[in-house]
Automatic annotation (TrEMBL):
Belongs to the glycosyl hydrolase 130 family. InterPro entries: Glyco_hydro_beta-prop_sf, Mannoside_phosphorylase. The keyword Aminoacyl-tRNA synthetase does not apply. Keywords: Glycosidase, Glycosyltransferase, Hydrolase, Transferase. GO terms for molecular function: glycosyltransferase activity; hydrolase activity, acting on glycosyl bonds. This is Glycosidase. It comes from the Bacteria. Gene3D superfamilies: Glycosyl hydrolase domain, family 43. It comes from Sphingomonas taxi.
Length: 370
């Protein structure tokens, strides 16, 4: 196994940020992480990196400020400090509401970064193809892209964040680099939607993860624990999705991911079935410890789980990787969040977000999944 950070906040030129259209206040890169990952027609690799851009001084004059997109440009909203809870460094919560209402201390946009075929060197950073908010349902940003190539089309899902809704949106591309927004495909708080890299029968298939305020209990003797889990959905056209009736991947009691699980990389077809890498979270402080695990799904019926490896992590956060940029870290717990997988002959290349800060590239021998 070979590991390295391939893209960090220091690689980003904020003079070319889309936020310069409206925000004159100084900003910095809170994180450059959780990249969508695919191979381009020229053989090079593409990372679609989430750039979380934050105000250098969000608190001033007794207020905390949030960045928001509008059709006329980017603006700042000021909230009195006595009305918010800023315990989580990534967001703040409005006090006194009947519902949990959040605003973000950063706004995320997506930056295409082209790598050499081996994933070892940056070839180009395509600021001209960056993806930024374009509608009210994205006014607080576009996050955590996942890219799947099916035939001659690249499908990219992302989490769009706004006061109108917290939803999954779809972009498509004919060259893997330049993407067109197709709109909302899954509604409120359905995160980590990832298309399978190929059809199942005549249908598109995707992983989803619906979130909610309430989860119902399994029986006391069940091996499963209630909470966020990975579900499946199918579609005739990638725009209209029906959830499968069968349950998907669920967190097991006593496992190292009992807090919650969610999709990671796009499922790819192997001779043994659909291989997917997913994230599992162990409860710890406010964020939890994020690790990467893997599963194998039946090629004809992906709801039939052939193998679930949730005991020994495939990837864990590695402090040695982030040691040179440790002064930039802001999360108190270890996080690795795998977001893309590409075939590289005898190996798989796995792209991940490390510590919600940088992009990590890992080379894994295919024999690890035998």
């Amino acid at each position: 196994m070979h590991d390295a950070l391939i893209f960090t906040p220091d690689h980003v030129d904020l003079t070319r940020s889309p936020l310069r259209r409206g925000i004159a206040e100084p900003t910095y890169v809170l994180g450059a992480f959780n990249p969508g990952f695919t191979r381009l027609p020229n053989g090079n690799l593409l990372l679609m990196v989430r750039i979380a851009e934050a105000l250098s001084e969000p608190v001033r004059d007794g207020h905390v400020h949030a960045i928001r997109w509008t059709p006329a440009g980017y603006v700042l909203d000021a909230w009195p400090l006595e009305q918010v809870d800023m315990t989580d460094p990534r967001q703040f919560e409005l006090k006194g509401s009947r519902h949990r209402i959040l605003a973000l201390t950063s706004l995320s946009w997506l930056l295409p970064v082209e790598l050499d075929p081996a994933g070892e060197r940056i070839v180009a950073i395509h600021y001209d193809a960056a993806i930024e908010p374009a509608a009210g349902y994205q006014c607080y940003g576009v996050e955590d892209a996942r890219i799947t190539r099916i035939g001659d089309i690249w499908y990219m899902t992302a989490c769009s964040v706004g006061a109108e809704r917290h939803c999954t949106t779809l972009h498509t591309s004919r060259d893997g680099l330049h993407y067109r927004l197709e709109g909302i495909v899954l509604d409120h708080q359905n995160k980590d939607m990832i298309l399978f890299e190929g059809l199942v029968g005549d249908r598109f298939m995707a992983l989803t993860r619906p979130l909610g305020e309430v989860y119902f209990a399994y029986p006391p003797d069940s091996p499963w624990v209630g909470g966020p889990s990975i579900n499946f959905a199918q579609s005739p056209d990638t725009l209209h999705w029906k959830p499968l009736d069968a349950p998907g991947l669920r967190a097991r009691k006593g496992s190292r991911s009992a807090m919650k699980i969610g999709g990671g990389t796009q499922p790819v077809l192997t001779r043994d079935g659909w291989l997917m890498i997913y994230h599992g979270v162990e409860a710890r402080e406010s964020v939890g410890i994020y690790r990467s695990f893997w599963a194998l799904l039946d090629r004809d019926d992906p709801a039939h789980i052939l193998r679930l490896e949730d005991e020994t992590p495939l990837l864990e956060a590695d402090p040695a990787l982030t040691a040179p940029i440790a002064y930039q870290m802001y999360l108190p717990t270890p996080v690795v969040f795998s977001t893309g997988l590409v075939d590289s002959g005898d190996d798989y290349l796995v792209a991940s977000g490390e510590a919600d800060l940088a992009c990590r590239m890992t080379r894994l021998p295919k024999g690890m999944f035998a």
